[in-house]
Design a protein that fits this description.
The complex is a heterodimer. By secondary structure, chain A is of the alpha+beta class. Helices cover 32% and strands 24% of the residues of chain A. In chain A, strand 12 and strand 13 form a beta hairpin. Chain B is 36% helix and 19% strand. Chain B contains 19 helices and 18 strands. The two termini of chain B are 28 Å apart. Classes of the chains: A alpha+beta, B alpha+beta.
């Protein structure tokens, strides 16, 4: 019997965690299937009741927000002050919460310019499984007092504790954006991305899918136009002819590109990180294998970041498993790191490799969650040894 | 006292020139940039490789001897202060840049490479390493990792933790692990993020992978003179409201101007109540537009004079004046204490006013140099140790200013670290429970408590027999003694 708890205060959250047995923490639950299901679960603690904007210091460009607040709702609030929390992950329209995005360390195309929440969280409150309530950081942008618990919590998928509140740094909304698009193979796109990284264009995003590359620039005035021109020139030198999209088309493009890496139910989603210059080779090897597999395969890349996603659908679980193996090998061959983000039934592969420092990570897990009650089984590498 | 057996084994491991035992030579390691705390180590080990560091750490563990990592010793919170009867592990001989990948904008360095050397090594590729603490010419990347160093330009570019992608760490158990990676993501918990800023208490970093940035196309710098720091602070608010994120915004008050000018002749106006340095960098056309706007905002907020750096040379001079601020205080007083509190930027005027009141109550002068963009204050409390009671009053005033920052919603330290200096002040900012959880994290790395003990977290031995919020001693309440 799985019970559900929806605490509305920190004290209630503490009680729910203390008495909850094996725990699964959930925001909107949009990314729960990105990892294997919990080995055991007595209580699902939902953060939906913790959804207040506690403080918005608009002149200091900071905000304190409860973990269960939907990101889209927060962005609407902040937009009124001409500001935003600079993260554009998928699933925001599906209700993804600030805490959930933090726990998954998920981000979108504009991660290239702004980083992830990891880079923007300046304080947090966490409830540990033994009921300890701990704060780390503070409410000011600059602060080096004490250990940084925020960063290990970010991306821990709720396996260290329940994050109830975050204080974040905000950014002014960009005054204008320009999107350029061109037909380009993976090699050409990677070449363009590297050029842009080293140049003056300062792109906010460079995404590639379906033999097309998109470049997003943000800024204002004549400067923005000059940067757009520099991107066009860099592209032309590589035979990539970029055209500016009108605002509506640009917005529609990014709305699609943003969601692609999340995948959809019925898809196996493979993910990989490589150095930015590795994408061309990865795409060639993988697309060749994909053609032979008989599966429907779509490749997407945040090219300048070196973060790639392949979505597989159709065919058998065995075919998915086989192609996931090719992905793994190709990524590892480039010195990259492969993941399995989502899987269709019957695909029994680990979600990630065992980290190099797994021993130390297990000790941290044990220090914060000695009885292993937070998300048991969610991180498969944690269970081994 | 370090056993002779340990010393001999270390010498066998590192060679005779790899161990410092001579009492006179050891004196060079008795303190870091916070000279008020001193402890001569029993021995200094000078390893060259991660394997040697691991072996040194394993030997210390075997002998139950505490060890403290040390870079260039420029830290300002006593983080590199030796433990009593302990070994200092200095990274002085780990000075190689191990790999440069200009295309992917990555570099791997040993911990003893200086901050400035990294930028110098990649300048020919049009790249640089962004964090720029004032001590960047001498301070090491290993030390920067330990302290999560900032610098004048961190307002726009962030801190060390935003630029260090991976570290190789020798754990207090003597194991060599890699945390993080050169890639955008790596599996597992972000222990890299815990180690950065952990002040050498979680292990010894033996290699650092950093992210490099392209050199900005344009850099423009101005110095605006205001009647008061509060007025200058208003101008900063004006820039933020206009959506301008300067690369750096620094402020000097009249006393700081006087000292810097005497030391460097950087051209600051001696009759100004405050000087605001504003620097913008980035793509040329945008910098020009925003620079013009910043200048206008300064004038609109009452800047009497705006000096615009004519070129790289003049900009260097302006920065030389600012970065020499601490050293220049010698022109005003025989000694000073530097505080490192942070406040929400919008509280600047109120907090500076209160600092002035506290200073006058204490009968001491306080010069203010600070990172105005992010509210990181560096009040310099000037005193003369030869005047009876003045050193104690200075220490009291400095601590009061720190408390003021916490009360304003800020932090006890923005970039200098907690170290030994502020370990006992942590309860002003964190609850007992917060600190207990931090101690659990530390224990996961260092179960035996041998790695840089006495730093960051308050201990009964360090801070009196009861941990927890500060409680005045009865004699202190009676005015018989004072805490500092």
């Amino acid at each position: 019997m799985v019970t559900e708890a929806a605490p509305a205060t920190l004290a209630e959250a503490r009680d729910a965690v203390l008495g909850g047995g094996a725990l699964l923490f959930a925001g909107a639950g949009t990314k729960l299937d990105w990892l294997p299901p919990a080995r055991a679960c007595d209580t699902i603690v939902r953060t939906a009741g913790l959804r207040r904007l506690v403080a918005h210091e608009r002149d200091d460009l900071t905000a304190t927000v409860e973990a269960g607040m939907p990101l889209a709702e927060l962005q609407r609030e902040l937009a009124g002050a001409g500001q935003w929390l600079a993260v554009d992950p998928p699933l925001a329209q599906a209700g993804a919460t600030v805490g959930g995005v933090f726990a998954a360390d998920d981000a979108g195309p504009r991660r290239l310019r702004y980083g992830t929440l990891r880079d923007q969280v300046i304080g947090c409150t966490v409830v540990l499984s033994d009921g300890a309530v701990a704060r780390s950081g503070g409410r000011v942008i600059k602060n080096v007092a004490g250990y940084d618990l925020m960063r290990p919590l970010c991306g821990s998928h709720g396996t260290l504790g329940l994050v109830t509140e975050l204080t974040v740094r905000l950014h002014p909304l960009p005054e204008r954006a320009v999107t350029l698009r061109a037909a380009a193979g993976a090699h050409a796109a990677a070449g363009l991305a590297l050029r842009l990284l080293g140049g003056v264009a300062q792109p906010s995003a460079v995404d590639w899918t379906d033999d097309t590359v998109w470049v997003l620039l943000e800024g204002r005035g004549a400067g923005l136009m000059q940067r757009a021109e520099s991107v066009r020139r860099a592209g032309a030198a590589l035979g990539v002819h970029l055209e500016e999209l009108d605002d509506a088309e640009a917005e529609a493009s990014w709305a699609v590109l943003r969601e692609l890496p999340a995948g959809r139910p019925g898809e196996t989603v493979l993910r990989a990180a490589t150095l930015p210059d590795g994408f061309g080779d990865l795409a060639i090897v993988f697309e060749r294998a994909a053609q032979r597999s008989g599966l429907q395969v779509a490749l997407h890349s945040h090219v300048a970041l070196g973060l790639h996603t392949a979505r597989l659908s159709g065919g058998t679980a065995a075919a998915h498993t086989g192609l996931a193996g090719v992905w793994r090998e190709a990524v590892a061959g480039l010195g990259g790191t492969p993941w399995l983000r989502r899987r269709v039934g019957g695909v029994a592969l680990p979600a990630s490799d065992t980290p190099a420092a797994a021993g130390l990570m297990r000790r941290l897990k044990h220090a914060l969650d000695p009885d292993g009650r937070c998300g048991p089984g969610r991180l498969d590498w944690l269970e081994a040894a | 006292m370090v056993a002779a057996a340990l010393a001999r084994r270390l010498e066998r491991l590192l060679g005779p020139d790899g161990v410092v035992r001579d009492p006179t030579a050891l004196r060079a390691y008795e303190c870091d940039g916070l000279t008020s705390h001193r402890q001569v180590p029993d021995l200094v080990a000078l390893p060259r490789t991660a394997q040697e560091v691991a072996a040194v750490v394993a030997l210390c563990a075997e002998h139950g001897v505490p060890f403290t990592p040390r870079g260039a010793g420029t830290g300002l919170s006593g983080g590199a202060l030796a433990a009593e009867g302990g070994v200092v592990v200095a990274t002085t001989r780990m000075r190689d840049i191990l790999a440069v990948d200009p295309a992917n904008q990555r570099l791997v360095a040993q911990p003893g490479v200086t901050n400035r050397e990294i930028s110098a090594a990649v300048a020919r590729h049009g790249l640089y390493y962004a964090p720029d603490p004032s001590s960047q010419v001498v301070c090491t990347i290993g030390g920067n990792v330990a302290e999560n160093s900032g610098g004048a330009h961190c307002l726009k570019y962030g801190f060390t933790t935003h630029h260090v992608l991976a570290v190789e760490l020798v754990t207090p158990g003597g194991e060599i692990v890699t945390l993080g990676s050169a890639l955008a993501e790596s599996p597992g918990y972000d222990l890299r993020g815990v180690v950065v800023g952990s002040e050498g208490t979680l292990g010894i970093v033996t290699a650092v992978t950093v992210r490099l940035l392209p050199l900005p196309e344009a850099v423009r710098t101005l110095v605006a003179d205001f009647a008061s720091p509060a007025a200058a602070g208003e101008a900063v608010s004006g820039m933020v409201a206009a959506g301008i994120t300067p690369a750096a915004v620094e402020m000097l008050d009249a006393l700081a101007i006087e000292a810097c000018e005497a030391a460097t002749s950087a051209g600051y106006s001696l009759d100004a109540g405050a000087a605001l340095i504003v620097e913008l960098d980035g793509p040329a056309a945008e910098v020009e537009a925003e620079f013009a706007a910043a200048e206008r905002i300064c004038r609109d907020h009452g800047a009497a004079r705006v000096r615009i750096a004519g070129g790289a040379q003049e900009r260097e001079l302006i920065w030389k004046g600012r970065k020499a601020a601490f050293a220049a205080m010698g022109r005003l007083a025989p000694a000073y204490l530097v505080q490192d509190g942070v406040i929400p930027r919008t509280r600047l005027g109120a907090v500076l006013g209160r600092i002035a009141e506290l200073a006058s109550e204490a009968g001491l002068r306080v010069a203010n140099v600070f990172h105005a963009g992010d509210g990181n204050l560096h009040p310099l409390v000037l005193y003369d140790a030869d005047v009876a009671g003045e050193a104690v009053r200075a220490e009291e005033l400095s601590k009061r200013i720190m408390s003021l920052c916490v009360d304003a919603g800020g932090s006890i330290t923005g970039e200098h670290g907690v170290g030994v200096d502020k370990a006992c002040d942590m309860p002003r900012m964190f609850s007992e429970e917060d600190l207990a959880v931090m101690a659990r994290v530390r224990g996961a790395f260092d179960p035996d408590g041998l790695c840089n003990p006495g730093k960051v977290l308050p201990t009964p031995r360090l801070c009196g027999d009861r941990p927890g919020p500060y409680r005045p001693h009865p004699l202190e309440e009676a005015g018989v003694i004072s805490q500092w």
